Amino acid sequence: MTVTCGIDWAEKHHDVALVDQTGKLVAKRRISDDAHGWRTLVELLAEHGDRPDAPIPVAIETNRGLLVSCLRATGRKVYAINPLAVARYRERHTVARSKSDHADAMTLANILRVDADHHRPLPQDSELVQAIAVLARAQQDAVWNRQQLANQLRSLLREYFPAALKAFHVKNIGLTSREARAVLQAAPTPTAAAQLTARRLHVLLRASGRQRNIETWADRLQAVFGEEHLRRLPLVEEALGRQAQALLLQLDAACRAADDLADATGEAFHQHPDAAIITSFPGLADLTGARLLAELGDDRTRFADARALKAYAGAAPITRASGKSLVVHHRKVKNQRLAAAGYVWAFASLRAPGPRAHYDRRRDDGDRHSSALRNTFNRMLGCLYHCLQERKEYDELAAFPPRGGSACPDSVEDHVA
After folding, report:
1. Rg for the chain (alpha carbons), in Å?
2. Which of 63, 52, 53, 57 shows the shortest CA–CA distance to 5?
3. Which of 62, 112, 244, 274 has the fewest CB atoms in 10 Å of its CB?
4. Where are the domains of the chain?
5. Strand order in the sheet with 13-19
6. How far is CA 359 from CA 240, 245, 280, in A?
């Protein structure tokens, strides 16, 4: 590696610095964030030895944006360096806390010059898996937004309309259901809900998409709305109802977005060759499997081994040792999206005998629910890594052999908490 490139990213422009193997600055340039700036960068790299068979590696403080996408498309190694790490590297050369965009670009280039082996380049994922990542992350954001709006609506209804919470506090039916959204939009106040007739409720339930037990649901809702509850003053109640209707409009849009994105994510996920392997695992369906694939990618060289993957997902513990002090606890710095999908996966996998036995054994050893579930995720993640590397589908006996047998290679370390 003779020349390395550092780019200090900004919204409208980027500072570029190129250094040689001795750390000497050989070129610097400020480029705009557009096609002209991209051409300037390509020409600058070509002037200093950039070739298709030996591209100059680039360090930048972000892994997003059009500039990063174009750099990755050239096939070169692109390193996304955390800004906090860049600040620590900057302090190696000065304690005056001086800072400039050009100095940060040089710091990034020098990071690659001296410590490239200690940083991971962005994976060379296929175009399909990048598209799946966009859809899966957008769907996950929509789900989180939907739940946030549902929590806001629940808090509001507690202030003036507790009957609505009671009416839709049913298994698999909540405020995000189509039935709840349709009924509350038509009757957002206790006064309006008490005036709903059985016929009107039939129409609302059918319009929401419900096809079974409509008569039972209409009778139950009419009974709940007719019960005696504490009430607000009429004008205050009407104002709160208008606020609830506004929240319902946002919640309805969030629910529709989550459903549409889920369909698009599942359709794209089924086109990927890894889909059959991922969904062969217990607890993994189309949506959860797509979220896992989005964060893992399909670059088989991204993780050196299963331990690296487990650390990236936050499933492996972290040890802090100093003198006689030794503390082992869960990781806080991790891929939060992968960790969230892993929690859902581990919980859903408990229906299978192997993961359930492993979870129960950890609980018997004194682990709390979250710790035992995280350990189960750790085990399943190791098995997934092995299956993806070997192009094999999940085998219950290989992943969870009888006590005394040997588990699948690189699958887990049972002693890990």
Report:
1. 27
2. 57
3. 62
4. 4-118, 130-268, 276-399
5. 25-32, 13-19, 4-8, 58-60, 78-80
6. 46, 44, 20
AA identity, residue 65: G
Q: Which amino acid is at 16?
A: V
CATH number given to 4-118: 3.30.420.40
Is-contact 182 165, C-beta < 8 A? no
Rounded distance between C-alpha atoms, residue 417 and residue 413, angstroms: 9
Place of tokens 């209707």: 245
**DSSP type of residue 377:** H
273 phi, psi to nearest 5 deg? -65, -20
Read off the pLDDT of residues 350-401 as tens digits, 9 standing for 90 and up: 999 999 999 999 999 999 999 999 999 999 999 999 999 999 999 999 999 8
CA distances (Å), origin 334, targets 92, 123, 318, 340: 26, 17, 11, 11
* Residues in the chain, overall count: 417
C-alpha separations of 260 from 138, 147, 254, 290, 397 in Å? 11, 16, 10, 15, 37
Strand-pair category, 78-80 with 58-60: parallel
- Contact assessment for residue 275 and residue 166, using Cβ atoms and an 8 Å cutoff: no
Residue in this structure with the two tokens 């086109």, named with its chain if needed: 271
Pairing of strands 318-322, 78-80: unpaired
Can you say whether the dihedral through the CA atoms of 310, 68, 48, 94 is positive or negative? negative
Q: How many CA atoms lie within 13 A of 249 on its CB side?
A: 5
pLDDT for 148-195, tens place per residue? Answer: 999 999 999 999 999 999 999 888 788 999 999 999 999 999 999 999
d(CA 222, CA 200): 10
